[in-house]
From TrEMBL:
<dbReference type="InterPro" id="IPR009057">
    <property type="entry name" value="Homeodomain-like_sf"/>
</dbReference>
<dbReference type="Pfam" id="PF25601">
    <property type="entry name" value="AAA_lid_14"/>
</dbReference>
<dbReference type="InterPro" id="IPR003593">
    <property type="entry name" value="AAA+_ATPase"/>
</dbReference>
<dbReference type="InterPro" id="IPR025662">
    <property type="entry name" value="Sigma_54_int_dom_ATP-bd_1"/>
</dbReference>
<protein>
    <submittedName>
        <fullName>Sigma-54-specific transcriptional regulator</fullName>
    </submittedName>
</protein>
<dbReference type="GO" id="GO:0043565">
    <property type="term" value="F:sequence-specific DNA binding"/>
</dbReference>
<dbReference type="GO" id="GO:0005524">
    <property type="term" value="F:ATP binding"/>
</dbReference>
<dbReference type="InterPro" id="IPR058031">
    <property type="entry name" value="AAA_lid_NorR"/>
</dbReference>
<dbReference type="Pfam" id="PF00158">
    <property type="entry name" value="Sigma54_activat"/>
</dbReference>
<dbReference type="InterPro" id="IPR027417">
    <property type="entry name" value="P-loop_NTPase"/>
</dbReference>
<dbReference type="Pfam" id="PF02954">
    <property type="entry name" value="HTH_8"/>
</dbReference>
<keyword id="KW-0238">DNA-binding</keyword>
<dbReference type="InterPro" id="IPR002078">
    <property type="entry name" value="Sigma_54_int"/>
</dbReference>
<feature type="domain" description="Sigma-54 factor interaction">
    <location>
        <begin position="208"/>
        <end position="437"/>
    </location>
</feature>
<dbReference type="InterPro" id="IPR025943">
    <property type="entry name" value="Sigma_54_int_dom_ATP-bd_2"/>
</dbReference>
<keyword id="KW-0805">Transcription regulation</keyword>
<dbReference type="GO" id="GO:0006355">
    <property type="term" value="P:regulation of DNA-templated transcription"/>
</dbReference>
Length: 522
């Protein structure tokens, strides 16, 4: 209803509104490029112009670009009319033929080749409303002289041009502000990620001790790796802390609430390793007296740490590769396939590349395991970490044993820092714990209590322990030392070491666990 009169045919009854429908697409344009395209179409259709173009000035104001084509006109290249218009800020009108003669820019000539020579070409600068020097671009139109002359004095044409500039400018501002918002959001996200990574790396420094550049870098890379689901391969000498790194990685990862399951492939007989990993059904082998889920199943939703992966038998390597590729496996003797969602972290103290060359390790498995390589540096390459590590071990020893903390004297720390630790951090830890056990309560540890200069092992030297004497500790340290020596003597063979010590094998294994000598096997 308009003025109480029913309107049945708007176009006929309200002729002044006839143009509005054709303006709608222009007004509804959602990007600067769309508004330019719609304005060109509208002008060409309503004015009957055969050729209309709109060029946009780029953000640094040096080039005019045509939508939907690669053509770029430099604003300081006066071989085309658009440079004259944008530089002078005034329109240009000329006969196509004449302009073709004066302007020889190849792209302009190519465009003008489609225009009739007796047409006029009219180019107008377009600027942001209310900003006399804020240029948006140039639009050009070609057609008969009469049509273009009529346009010049047309209030509708002037209105269309203003509308184009208004919409274009607003959409441009909107685009800019979206981009700024996006940039802000991106930098905030990056900042938060960086802060989180730094906070994580800092808190890691309380469990993965050491502030040497190598350790700082290792923690930073660990946090990065933890953020991904990639398989991590840890390479490093024995005792450098590979298992520590694997645990820390799990704790920093999204799977932290899931299980962390570790297995040492070298410590389990080849025949049992597959059963241990994949599980078995009753009767699958002589020891399988009942169904048993394997470690893959135990690690479902968490992290599986395969230590000494280089010792995995080749047949099992192929099966592991399949699990990694498909997430599926079959328990030993079982018909039904299972699925496990695990993140794999593996470690090796022997260079796997060498094993590949010797055909003992599958190259395809290596690449699958090594999606994120992390190398754990030997202690000799980060000696500056020794004092911090030593103090950490002294504190954790005291906490574990329920004793007051014994500090290490500066000369003991200096002595340790100059030491050669082929067994890396584990060897350092053993030395510090030995010294803690030997130290008189409440007195700092001097270098003489460290194992290299340790008291003689024969009862005749017992007096030199003096105030340090604490029977339980001394016996423990003595036992540890003796067992370590026997294991070394028999090249890690526990059966022979047990025989020579007059102990059952199981008792020796128990003592090794108690005295934390498990990792000391060569
Ligand atoms: N950066 C560290 N901070 C604190 N403790 C560490 C660090 N590195 C290693 N350790 C300690 O040293 C001992 C050996 O570490 P771990 O078992 O992780 O070494 P590994 O490289 O896995 O040894 P292996 O090659 O024999 O399996 C552990 O008691 C561990 O807690």
């Amino acid at each position: 209803m308009v003025g109480g009169t029913p309107v049945t045919d708007g176009e006929r009854l309200v002729p002044a509104l006839t143009g509005f429908a054709s303006i709608l697409p222009l007004v509804e344009s959602s990007s600067p490029a769309q508004v330019r395209r719609n304005a060109c179409r509208l002008l060409a259709r309503t004015a009957g112009l055969p050729w209309v173009r709109c060029l946009a000035l780029d953000s640094d104001g040096r080039r005019l670009c045509a939508d939907g084509s690669d053509t770029v006109y430099r604003c300081d290249d006066f071989r085309h009319p658009f440079a004259h218009v944008i530089r002078s800020g005034t329109p240009l009108l000329g006969r196509v033929n004449a302009l073709r003669g004066r302007m020889n820019h190849p792209d302009f000539l190519a465009e003008a080749a489609n225009l009739r020579g007796d047409w006029d070409l009219h180019c107008r600068p377009l600027r942001a409303p209310g900003a006399p020097y804020d240029w948006l671009g140039v639009w050009g139109m070609a057609g008969s002289r009469a049509t273009l002359a009529a346009l010049q004095g047309s209030a509708d044409f002037a209105a269309l041009e203003r509308l184009l500039c208004h919409l274009w400018y607003r959409l441009l501002a909107q685009d800019r502000s979206h981009r700024q918002d996006q940039n802000l959001r991106d930098s905030l996200r990056r900042l938060r990620e960086d802060q989180r990574s730094h906070a994580l790396a800092d808190s890691l420094a309380r469990e993965l001790i050491g502030h040497s550049p190598a350790m700082v870098r290792l923690r930073e890379r660990l946090v990065r790796a933890a953020d991904t689901g990639l398989a991590v391969l840890l390479q490093g000498e024995t005792g450098t802390g590979k298992e520590c790194v694997a645990r820390a990685l799990h704790r920093c990862s999204a799977r932290r609430d899931g299980p962390f399951v570790a297995i040492n492939c070298a410590a389990i007989p080849e025949t049992l390793l597959e059963s241990e990993l994949f599980g078995h059904v009753r009767g699958a082998h002589s020891a399988a007296t009942r169904d048993r889920a394997g470690l893959l199943s135990a690690a479902d939703g968490g992290t599986l740490f395969l230590d000494e992966i280089g010792d995995m038998p080749p047949a099992l390597q192929a099966k592991l590769l399949r699990v990694l590729e498909s997430g599926r496996y079959r328990p030993l003797g079982g018909g039904r396939e299972r699925h496990a969602d695990i993140r794999l972290v593996s470690a090796s103290h022997q260079p796997l590349v060498k094993l590949i060359r010797e055909r003992q390790f599958r190259a395809d498995l290596y690449y699958r395991l090594n999606q994120f390589p992390l190398s754990v540096p030997p202690l000799r390459d980060r000696r500056e970490d020794i004092p911090e590590l030593a103090e950490h071990f002294a504190v954790s020893y005291a906490a574990r044993e329920g004793r007051p903390t014994t500090s290490l004297s500066p000369s003991a720390l200096a002595h340790l820092a100059s030491g050669d630790f082929p067994g890396n951090v584990r060897e350092l830890r053993n030395q510090v714990e030995y010294a803690c056990a030997m130290a008189p309560v409440g007195q700092p540890i001097g270098p003489e209590l460290l194992p290299q200069t340790a008291p003689p092992e024969s009862p005749s030297g017992i007096e030199s322990w003096g105030a340090a004497f604490n029977l339980r500790e001394v016996v423990r340290a003595y036992e540890a030392r003796l067992i370590r020596e026997k294991l070394r003597q028999f090249n890690g063979n526990r059966a022979k070491a047990a025989l020579s010590l007059g102990l059952p094998k199981r008792t020796l294994a128990h003592k090794c666990r108690q005295l934390q000598l498990d990792g000391d096997l060569p």
